């Protein structure tokens, strides 16, 4: 996709309705709900339903899963009206498509992985974007680690979402360099792990737009 006038911003890992509303008011395009029990940002379906109900129109809710059992994903979907799914593990296209919902696929960047070949595997009607995150051994995401943005392809077969170690002081440079469709952040807008800091959220969104 070519250069866009406005880079979309997703703030991931929200845990309460008030913060979600504040993040929306700060200008976020999407909020992420983590359904991954080992994460400090994990939420129950009940918490997530309250958060989604607090969102104003045109702010998307994104449900994040990591190699989750399809039964668990379906049970969350029955309780929470999510707009988009984010698969952040080793899921393949068949797995991601089985829910009949739009999704984005995350990939953790490693030197031996051909990102364009990987992206091509997910080109399909339900896949709405490819998210790049940093590779950290043993942790699937939300680590606050970034990766080298040099030498990334400039043309992608899917809308590109950049994540991994972004924060208010590096997001503008990242956008200029990578020209993604959207950016996604979790750790970089927190002071305490799992707790969003609204000043950092505000600074991040101002720097990204
Ligand atoms: O946020 C989490 O706890 C998380 C857990 C498991 C997989 C992904 C997770 N978050 C996603 O990770 C990236 C990068 O996050 P960070 O900004 O470096 O902390 C981002 O896409 C989050 O959505």
UniProtKB/TrEMBL annotation:
Catalytic activity entry: N-(5-phospho-beta-D-ribosyl)anthranilate = 1-(2-carboxyphenylamino)-1-deoxy-D-ribulose 5-phosphate
EC number in record: 5.3.1.24
Pathway in which this enzyme or protein is active: Amino-acid biosynthesis; L-tryptophan biosynthesis; L-tryptophan from chorismate: step 3/5
Keyword Isomerase attached: yes
Any GO MF annotation of the entry: phosphoribosylanthranilate isomerase activity
Domain N-(5'phosphoribosyl) anthranilate isomerase (PRAI) span(s) in chain numbering: 9-206
InterPro entries in the record: Aldolase_TIM (IPR013785), PRAI_dom (IPR001240), RibuloseP-bd_barrel (IPR011060), TrpF_fam (IPR044643)
Keywords per UniProt: Amino-acid biosynthesis, Aromatic amino acid biosynthesis, Isomerase, Tryptophan biosynthesis
Keyword Isomerase attributed: yes
Record-linked PANTHER family: N-(5'-PHOSPHORIBOSYL)ANTHRANILATE ISOMERASE
Family in the record: Belongs to the TrpF family.
Protein name per its UniProtKB record: N-(5'-phosphoribosyl)anthranilate isomerase
Organism from which the protein derives: Deefgea tanakiae
